[in-house]
Amino acid sequence: MKHFFTVSLVLLCICLMTTCSKKDDDKKDALFGTTWSQTIDDTEYWFRFIDNGDCRYVSIPIGDDPYNNLWTSYYYALDGNNIIIKTLDSSDTKSKTWVSGNFNDTSMSLSGEDQSFNLTKKIK
Questions:
Q1: Rg of the chain over CA atoms, in angstroms?
Q2: Cα dihedral sign for 88, 89, 95, 96?
Q3: Is the four-CA dihedral 92, 76, 57, 70 of positive or negative sign?
Q4: 98-111: burial string, b at 16+ Cβ within 10 Å, e else
Q5: Could you list the pLDDT tens digit for every one of the 124 residues in the chain?
Q6: Which of 57, 63, 103, 120 has the smallest C-beta neighbourhood within 10 Å, fewest atoms?
């Protein structure tokens, strides 16, 4: 009887482990968890890709800690190595394109109506 209980418990654990699977929502895109920056004159520009579609941006004086500053939230979408970053309106829906461009493993080039960035990947 002892062995029956042990075998049953093992089979139950195996069944539970094999039926658990990740949702499609859990798939990470190529920018998930990455941080990119560029320095122009005495200003640093930082982009953080927090989650699928969630991007944060901050511009700070050189030497300031970007993580102690207020970041602006944006929405991003990928098509291969092409990226579009859009502003969010007050209801948090996708709205106007701010910048767009492309990226590879170490660099990202973005441009918009009044700004351009040539960013370098900082951390993964």
A1: 21
A2: negative
A3: positive
A4: bbbbebeeeebebe
A5: 566 556 555 554 464 455 544 454 567 899 999 999 999 999 999 999 998 889 999 999 999 999 899 999 999 999 999 999 999 766 655 578 999 999 999 999 999 988 999 999 997 5
A6: 63
